[in-house]
Amino acid sequence: MAYWSSELKEEEFERARRGISIKSFSKGNYLCHVGDRLDQWTGVASGIAVIGMVSAKGKATSLIGVPQGGWFGEGTVLKGEPRRYDVILLRDSEIAFMNRPTFLWLFENSVAFNRHLVRMLNERLAYFIALAEYHRLLDATGRLARNIAWLFNPVLSPRIGLHIEITQEEIAMLTGVSRQVANKSLQSLEAEGLLNVGHGSITVLDLQKLSRYGE
DNA sequence: TCATTAAATTGTT
DNA sequence: AACAATTTAATGA
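Predict the joint structure of the above. Result:
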């Protein structure tokens, strides 16, 4: 899957490049909290970010993981609203920010950019529908398998390849299960030959089967 | 480069 | 949630 910026025309690409700045953050830092005014389109150049929120009772919930190559926050930028979710970094990361004027200019002028946005939004919609669906239908291993599969989604995170640096604890947080359950689930997925579990990393062997696990 | 130690991560109860 | 085992990273000779 081609990276979105590579599909832009020369002039559009230049404009995009000038409107993007990159900053480094360390593990555990928040990129933004609910209610912040961060009106920049946000991309993960390296590392992993997690979008989630904290309930009134203080319980943290992860909604979606954004690994290297993924972008988010377009809804906030388009609508000019405060952020509705927390974004926390799972590890040291480099984050790209595209300022709002640049984003809006591309939105108005670039066909390729819009195509990418639609594709991305469509994919994310599919993700949340799938999330609601398999939350009811699948056991912990199934949910974990599909969460991992979505992490490697070629549309949402085109840069990622088949290997990711992520601990079992982090996957557990993403999936919404305990670390113990995540550990067992990963072991059975590995036994079935769908992925390899390394120390602090995962290598996917069969993305197709992983994304259909439990059907 | 190797050995030692500390820290992080995993596997199990 | 706690513990032991394992792996990686850091340090210094």
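The two ends of chain A are 26 Å apart (CA to CA).
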